[in-house]
Design goal:
By secondary structure, this protein is α+β, with helices and mostly antiparallel strands. Helix content is 59%, strand content 17%. The chain contains 12 helices and 12 strands. It has helices at residues 3-22, 53-61, 173-208, 211-230, 233-238, 244-269, 271-274, 279-298, 300-327, 333-354, 362-365, 367-415, and strands at residues 24-27, 42-46, 66-67, 75-79, 83-92, 98-104, 111-116, 119-124, 140-146, 152-159, 163-166, 168-172. The strands form 3 sheets. Strands 1, 2, 3, 5, 7, 8 and 10 form a 7-stranded mixed sheet that branches. A hairpin with a 2-residue loop joins strand 7 and strand 8. Helix 3 packs antiparallel against helix 4 (211-230). Mean pLDDT is 85; it is low at 1-19.
């Protein structure tokens, strides 16, 4: 690289830092939705995880903060063990001070520390007691008052053993209350659907005694456990004390979903008979999910990283298997393919997002929630289709038996 190119790159970097530093987020009392501070955000990676706020402030004042990539809507640093310091400035857009809320909309961060104008105002995190959070909310948020006559400097330090993602939102106090009502209602509807389908499938298992339905119940429970962890309902309602269950629930849930989802698919499609070459690969995939669930208890960070790649590999392998089953006209494989495609696309999207191969935004961040919700509906149709197909087979077999019996009776009568 030439000296001229290096100098040009340095100048552009300084210009980007300068623009970022001069960008102030303005919040109006009329704002009914959140303001995203991504364009005004500067960040610094603390690889050693030991820097204090004063060190970060010195770096920030020296203009050494980095900006997010052009077009990025949230700070996503992937699976990193580093601590990350974030800074943006905000003020009220009107002539009066404005009550507001700053939200870090990602529950599974081990540590989140808020500073306002250099003063630490809150220290919270996924592994802390829920009662220690400044606001009783499923993610991490603090109340503050934005002045109208000056800029307020907001600094946030995040650190985690999982995915270091920090979607930031700035709300008016009223808009935040409305957001809580809406988001909690939608999530309650989603979890209610999971519970209903799990109970329905459990009743099918108790009635038909087919293991595939039991595996499906356990798959749904795994999905539910992972989503409780991801969206903060677990921290708020199930494990509010920041216990070992809180630390391991999400990883355990996703691995159980992978394990029992694979086993369910194998039985549902009868891969031993219909897909004999793929069958051993699916057994190996199920074992990998089981081993990774156990690894999470000993090396959580490593297991999280493995889970990302396992989600990619497992999703593609299962999708290929169902597609082959559909091509071979396996009963109900078409609906099963459509339902699995929804959740697999969600798994692939969230895995690619966590690996920073896809941009972080509202769609990629909630892809698993959207995909699994669509799968819930479609798999109900798939199971109904399979039950109907098996009933038709039984009725056909019974009809053949009756026909054969009647033929035998007719033959005996003729001999008499």
């Amino acid at each position: 690289m030439s000296l001229k190119t290096s100098l040009l790159g340095l100048i552009l970097l300084c210009m980007a830092s300068s623009v970022n530093a001069n960008h102030v987020v303005r919040l109006s009392a009329d704002d009914r939705s959140a303001v995203n501070p991504a364009a005004a955000l500067g960040f610094w990676e603390d690889i050693g995880q030991q820097a204090r706020w004063s060190q970060f402030d010195t770096i920030a004042r020296a203009g050494e903060l980095q900006s997010l990539s052009p077009g990025a809507v949230e700070a996503n640093f992937g699976a990193s063990r580093s601590a990350f310091w974030l800074r943006f400035k905000a003020r009220a857009a009107g002539g009066e001070a404005l009550p507001a809320v700053v939200e870090v909309s990602f529950n599974t961060l081990d540590s989140v520390i808020f500073h306002i104008d250099g003063q630490e105002v809150a220290r919270t995190g996924f592994l802390s007691n829920f009662s220690d959070r400044p606001l009783a909310y499923r993610a991490h948020a603090i109340p503050l008052v934005l002045p109208a006559d000056r800029d307020l400097t907001i600094d946030i330090r995040i650190q985690t053993t999982g995915t270091a993602s920090a979607p930031l939102r700035l709300w008016t106090e009223q808009a935040f209350r409305e957001h809580i009502k809406t988001s909690y209602s939608l999530l309650a509807l989603y979890f209610g659907g999971l519970i209903a389908l799990a109970l329905y499938s459990l009743l099918l298992f108790l009635s038909l005694r087919e293991r595939s339905y039991l595996f499906y119940v356990l798959y749904i429970l795994g999905i539910g456990l992972g989503q409780l962890d991801q969206y903060g309902f677990g921290s708020e309602f199930v494990w509010p004390d920041g216990s070992l269950l809180a630390a391991e629930a999400g990883l355990l849930g996703w691995n159980l979903a992978g394990l029992f989802g694979t086993l369910f698919g194998m039985l549902f499609l009868n891969t031993r008979v219909n897909l004999p070459r793929l069958h051993p690969w699916l057994i190996g995939l199920a074992l990998l999910y089981l081993l990774n669930a156990g690894l999470g208890l000993a090396a959580h960070g490593l297991a999280v990283r493995i889970q990302m790649y396992l989600g990619l590999f497992g999703g593609l392998l299962q999708l290929a298997g169902v597609w082959l089953a559909w091509r071979r006209h396996v009963p109900a494989a078409g609906v099963f393919l459509l339902s699995l495609s929804c959740v697999i696309i969600g798994v692939l999207t969230i895995s690619l997002r966590n690996l920073q191969w896809l941009p972080a935004n509202g769609v990629t961040s909630n892809a698993m929630l959207i995909g699994s919700a669509m799968q819930i509906v479609l798999l109900a149709f798939a199971q109904a289709h399979r039950i109907q197909h098996e009933r038709l087979i039984r009725e056909s077999a019974q009809a053949e038996t009756l026909k054969a019996r009647q033929s035998l009776v007719d033959m005996l009568q003729e001999k008499e």
